[in-house]
Amino acid sequence: MARDEYFEYHYLDPSNEYIDPGSLVLKNSLNLQDAEILQLREHELSANRLLDLLFDPIMVHSMEDVRAIHHYLFQDIYAWAGKYRKVNISKEGNAFMAMQSFEMGEQYLDELIKHFCDETMSKPRLASSLAEILDNLNYMHPFREGNGRTQREVVRVLALEKGYYCEIDIQGNDEIYHLYMDGTVYGDKERLKQLFLRILTEIKR
C-alpha cells in the first residue's frame, strides 16, 4: 500500500531559540551541522532509549511524567529535552496549541490522564479514552521535536497499566501508519479509536 504524504511543520522562531543560524539545523549537544546526520543520530539515540523504557518504563500519571519520558528519550542530543517548546507550530496552515495556553492544556491533560488511571475500563472504553488523550496531547504538541515518539510511548505505558500491550508500529504496518497519521494529523478521534481497537492486546497473566 502506498503511504499518503503529510505536510511539514512550520515554526515561528525569529530569535533562533532552537535553530543554529549558521547551519539552519536544530541546536544539539553533538554539535552536528548536517540535518541528515543529525536526524540519523537522533533516531539512533532515541531508539536506544526507547529500548531501555521497554524494560524499565516511566509510568504516566500526569504531564510531569510525559515530560520525563521526553527527557529520557532525547537527553543525549537536545539541551531542552523534557521542556515545553518556546515557539509556536503549525502544519498545513493549522496551528497547534499556542505555547501561551500550555498551563490550561497541561491541566486538562492531567485530568484526562487521572480519569484514565482511576477508572476500570472495558476494551472499547479503553480505546476511546486513549484516543481522547492522544488527540489532546497531539494538539498540545508540547515539544519542539520528538512529539510523535513521546506520544507513542505514553499510550504504550498507559495501556500497560491497564493490562494491555499497545504497540503503534508505524514503520512496518501500513494500516496502522494510516490510522495513526490520519487520526493525529486531522484530529480524527474515531480513527484513533479504530487504531486502538485494532492493536490493544490483553496481557495474559
TrEMBL record:
Q: What is its EC number?
A: 2.7.7.108
User: Which domain of life does the UniProt lineage start with?
Assistant: Bacteria
InterPro entries, from UniProt? Fido, Fido-like_dom_sf
Q: Is Lipid biosynthesis one of the keywords?
A: no
Record GO biological process? regulation of cell division
Q: Which residues form the Fido domain?
A: 61-202
Q: Could you tell me which PROSITE patterns the record lists for this protein?
A: FIDO
Listed GO MF terms: AMPylase activity; ATP binding
Q: Which UniProt keywords apply?
A: ATP-binding, Nucleotide-binding, Nucleotidyltransferase, Transferase
Q: Which reaction does it catalyse?
A: L-threonyl-[protein] + ATP = 3-O-(5'-adenylyl)-L-threonyl-[protein] + diphosphate; L-tyrosyl-[protein] + ATP = O-(5'-adenylyl)-L-tyrosyl-[protein] + diphosphate
Tell me which PANTHER family the record gives.
PROTEIN ADENYLYLTRANSFERASE FIC-RELATED
The protein's name in its UniProt record: protein adenylyltransferase
